[in-house]
Design goal:
heterodimer, A: about 250 residues, alpha/beta, about 35% helix, B: about 475 residues, two-stranded antiparallel sheet
Chain lengths: ~250, ~475
């Protein structure tokens, strides 16, 4: 079976003024469908650059990136946009929800750009389903500023799932969340991986968060310094049960 | 996204910041509103002038018996205008032709026909020089003549029961109703050619006479009035189609009654005419026709080369422009064209054309400046919006929006702003135009063309000034945009 992601000899060089910065140095990596991969590294390790290329937001300077059997390292920006829309769901540290826009409208957004026009009612229906799957059906018409951080991140996850992408790419998804909501978010990721077979890739600088993955990849100075399976991955659902009962959130 | 969705999204976005959106489109609103209003008022003024000119009869030629030597600039023309007489005192006329009835306060018996028409006093207005045969000759011999109506003009007391009204009495022929294009019949009709030939004692009332004798409301057709102690049957009431020349007391056309010329001739035992009213087939022929009429009458009256005409041929252009039109407009036109009486129609139309071109130029510059300012306002706000929403743009790109999608989105917002601004401007302009019409009594004509043009131009302004900010947005790199603080 072909790996979902095949990266070989990937380099990225930024030119800042007269100085060339080597952000990635000949990185090679395969990721199989259904893995839960966490990428850890300190800031400046190149993991963000790697994530951008992985997420088709940027193109490598050299090397190849075969995603789902297609070399995406040399696609035009419009083609990349299409790949992002259909193949990758993004979750960000700062949620990146549109303010003054209801949760459900935020969730609908990816369907506006998926090329085949679908009726507004159908979009609404799909978005509602995605919101229910993250347990926020009753908050569909709340605006982001009426939601807690955890709820906002769950809306963002629902949005990432709208076009049913095979890959979920999360960049520091717990960076703005407290411990309990962090675990809740990781639980959702583990659920998605387990139940739907979605490949989850989480980039983080926290080792505790990295331990939820079944495979941990360490980055430093633009290189992969460690890549090992994690047979004793933390289980978010179990941890949640042991935590004291949550304070009821008031919307 | 479909176009509809794009614009729905744009309106939704703009509604999120209602005050800012409102302030942004004010510029376009004012621009479009001002343009449509001014075009409306300009059109209205032009239409009003043209209406006046046509209503007063650019193609009307009046031949008046006698040749009064006028002193000074204005004496009211050949026929003594008795309204002007008591408005301004006696006009400055070398040979004063006064009628006993020029003073309506004076009680008097009906004068004899000789006194009235001056048969016995040739030279005093020399009003006995035109005959029915002259009118017939003009009708048959002059080329380009459309209608001819010979006329006798009297002042008479019209009596109905215990009401009496002292007014102008015009003996006329059927064609007069065709010559007076601004006439409309409020009740009944004008007399037929048969009634005219037979000299039936029928009368058509002007609105003022109708008002005074019948109170204005009742339909007087079929009623009987008495003139010179003779019974006349009312067959119609004539009113003006033009709001600017609604009849007032003293008005020669509507404070008047019309009776068949033959009836007047029979009752007063006359054969002479005071005037012959002629229309040329087209306004452009007026000058030629009036020359031909002059030549024909001189020949018929056997006037030698050394002698002056014993009649006056006038075209209506000068009269039209001096009367009826709002005083300022008239002054503007006559002020720009000294010696208007000598103007030919071509010159006159050239003057009108020139002033309307100036007006159009003025409007265009007002339009240009206000739309430019409005457009810059839109561009400014859109640039600000692009900066503010950099992260949103980054996110949209991350989830699959192409540069093109971002471009369309921002362009749609700019165009929506300018179109809504334009539409509000149109609505305000319609309101303003009707306000101007009601309050200032100017005629304003909001044309569909002006509205369509304004809306199209507003949309174009949106595209033009929205393109740069939209391109700035579309050019953003998703990574930088997502990181933007």
């Amino acid at each position: 079976m072909l790996p979902l992601i095949q990266i070989s000899d990937l380099s990225k060089i930024y030119v800042v003024g007269d100085v060339k910065v080597l952000a990635l140095r000949r990185v090679s990596l395969d990721i199989t469908a259904g893995e839960f991969v966490t990428i850890v590294g300190p800031s400046g390790s190149g993991k963000s650059t790697f994530m951008h290329i992985l997420g088709c937001l940027d193109r490598p300077t050299s090397g190849s990136y075969v995603l789902n059997g297609r070399d995406v390292s040399k696609l035009s920006s419009d083609e990349l946009a299409h790949v992002r829309n259909s193949t990758i769901g993004f979750v960000f540290q700062s949620f990146n929800l549109l303010s003054r826009t209801s949760a459900i409208e935020n969730v609908e957004l990816p369907l506006l750009y998926n090329g085949n026009t679908c009726a507004a009612s159908e979009r609404r229906q799909k978005a509602m389903k995605a919101l229910s799957s993250v347990g926020l059906a009753d908050r569909a018409h709340h605006h982001p500023n009426q939601l807690s951080g955890g709820q906002q991140q769950r809306v963002a996850i629902a949005r990432a799932l709208m076009t049913a992408p095979p890959i979920l790419l999360a960049d520091e998804p717990t960076g703005n969340l407290d411990t309990r909501t962090s675990i809740e978010v990781m639980e959702i990721f583990q659920q998605l991986q387990r139940d739907r077979g979605i490949t989850v890739i989480v980039i983080t600088h926290e080792h505790q968060i990295a331990e939820y993955g079944t495979r941990i990849i360490g980055f430093r100075d633009g290189r992969i310094v460690s890549d090992a399976p994690n047979p004793r991955a933390r289980l978010a659902s179990e941890e949640l049960e042991q935590l004291p009962a949550p304070v009821t959130e008031v919307a | 996204m479909t176009h509809r969705e794009t614009f729905e999204l744009a309106t939704k976005t703009l509604r999120r910041n209602p005050l800012r959106s409102a302030l942004t489109l004010v510029g376009i609103t004012i621009g479009v509103g001002a343009v449509v209003t001014m075009v409306a008022v300009g059109n209205g003024a032009r239409a009003s002038i043209e209406e006046q000119v046509v209503a007063a009869g650019m193609n009307v030629i009046t031949v008046v018996a006698g040749n009064y030597q006028m002193k000074g600039e204005d004496g009211g023309g050949g026929v003594v205008d008795h309204q002007a007489w008591f408005d301004a005192g006696p006009p400055d006329i070398a040979l004063v032709s006064s009628h006993p009835e020029d003073d309506p306060m004076e009680k008097h018996d009906h004068p004899t026909s000789r006194q009235r028409l001056g048969d016995s006093a040739a030279g005093l207005g020399a009003a006995a020089t035109l005959t029915g045969a002259d009118a017939a000759a003009i009708r048959s011999e002059v080329r380009g003549v459309q209608y001819v109506s010979a006329g006798v003009h009297e002042s008479a007391r019209v009596v109905r029961g215990d009401r009496r009204w002292f007014t102008r009495l015009h003996g006329a022929e059927t064609d007069l109703s065709r010559i007076r294009r601004s006439w409309t019949f409020k009740h009944g009709r004008f007399f037929s050619s048969r009634e005219s030939e037979d000299g039936d004692q029928v009368v058509v009332l002007g609105t003022v006479a109708h008002q005074r004798l019948f109170g204005g409301e009742t339909n007087p057709v079929g009623a009987e009035v008495r003139i010179w102690n003779q019974p006349f049957r009312v067959i119609g009431v004539v009113a003006s189609t033009n709001w600017a020349t609604t009849g007032a007391v003293g008005d020669d056309q509507f404070d008047a009654v019309y009776v068949p010329l033959t009836a007047v001739h029979r009752l007063l035992n006359l054969t002479k005419l005071n005037s012959i009213t002629i229309t040329s087939r087209s306004a452009g022929e007026t000058t030629n026709v009036s020359r031909a009429v002059t030549a024909l009458l001189r020949q018929r009256h056997r006037i030698g080369d050394a002698h002056p005409d014993d009649f006056v041929v006038r075209t209506q252009a000068s009269v039209a422009l001096g009367k009826g039109v709002s005083r300022d407009v008239a002054r503007a036109i006559t002020g720009n064209a000294p010696g208007l009486e000598q103007l030919t129609l071509e010159q006159l139309s050239k003057t009108l054309e020139r002033s309307s071109r100036t007006m159009t130029l003025l409007l265009a510059s007002v339009a240009g400046v206000s739309l430019l300012v409005g457009g810059i306002g839109i561009m400014n706000i859109m640039l600000l919006s692009v900066t503010e929403r950099t992260r949103e743009i980054g996110l949209r790109m991350a989830i699959g929006a192409r540069s093109r999608d971002v471009l369309t989105q921002f362009l749609a917002e700019a165009v929506t702003l300018s179109l809504i601004g334009g539409l509000i401007g149109v609505v305000l302009a319609i309101a303003a135009a009707s306000g101007v019409e009601r309050v200032l009594r100017w005629s304003a004509d909001v044309s569909f063309g002006a509205i369509a043009l304004a809306v199209v131009v507003a949309g174009a302004v949106g595209v033009f000034f929205g393109l740069y900010p939209a391109r700035q947005a579309a050019r953003l790199n998703p990574i930088d945009a997502l990181r933007f603080e």
